# Entry
Amino acid sequence: MLSFVFPGQGSQSVGMAKAVVGQSPAARRIFEEANTALGFDLMALCFNGPESELQLTTNSQPAILCASVALLRALEDRTGLTPSVVAGHSLGEYTALVCAGAFAFADAIRIVRLRGQLMQEAVPPGVGSMAAIGAAGDVADALCRDAAQGQVLSPANYNSPSQTVIAGHTAAVQRAVKLATDRRIAAKELKVSAPFHCALMQPAADKLKDALAKVTLQDAKIPVISNVDAVAYQRANEARERLTKQVTAPVRWEMITRKLGDMGVKALIEVGPGKVLTGLTRKIRQDIAAASCETPADLDALAARAELQAYKSGTQATAKAAPRALKDWADMTKDERDQAITELVEFDKVLAQLEAKPHDIYRWISVNKLPTWLVDGELKFHPVQLDAWLGTIGGIAALKAKEAAEAAALAAEAQTADAKHAK
# Structure
């Protein structure tokens, strides 16, 4: 069972999704639709900055949504993968609803732009703050109770067993940080523009509720896991209610990840800028295989895995190009397979031999037809086939140089297209 998850605010960076947009017309169309919906050049801001403008909440929220949906469309177009359930961290829940067919993208990006404005305006600068606590939720709960002293202070993100973010009045947050340090708990005040996911955000929640009531929402086609209580929902009215509550309620990401595992999710792809959720997944549920989709190399690796899985499951027709050695394997007798297995080389040894990274291998399987064997769900390599392939491509150094030249050419084309678009 496969899940897509989507990042929230804080994952933004100048240049996010630019390389993929340069290769994927489907991804570029999303940015163009965003520009039309918002009435300004969000694509230029995402790709070129300045960073100070991109970091503003009113800009970063629609920017992350746009980059995530663009990467989603590129992933769908390249691999044909579809999730059985989706979730998103705070802002990412809106992206999850777009993925699930509940939100039209243009409506989602407009409401997210408003959400950012309302959250930014809810608390005057300096009144509120947030801090990261290196401890589980129950420890952070106790810190908040002990440090509040009548002010607003509460957990904002239950991220993992070793990280909880708190939010509230600035003085209360600073007291909590000092108290945590005294108790030998790692703590650090964060540089944020507002204290998100706490009671100080109630004015934003009230106004967002009115705005959501006017937006067209459909029932989701697949379950979406709520930030508020880690419960799966699909009804449009539930989406409105939960998105409103989400503004003041803590993000229960640890619960969400455990819920995904309990639902039978075995593989998870973080679709969007950054790899925060991929890392958190590995801390929370080691039985869920987590990967990220942020760069062209990520797409290459995911496409290769999708093709291999399609062949292994017997749905070869869905694979764009099943590796040749796998077809040979399927035609062998049992005795021939047993003999061949004794000669195969493990994945890690080939990584070391080729001085490559896992995503390089997956890309070469998909694009350059590196012959592989799939034995009991593990990729292996036949040394004779590997040597023949190296001869065909002229060696790894030549292949890497060729790929670097192609990437530079694509980047130059994208830059030219951006310049034309800016005019």
In short: Confidence is low (pLDDT under 50) at residues 311-327. Residues 198 and 248 are 4 Å apart (CA to CA). The chain has three domains: 2-121+200-294, 128-192, 315-407.
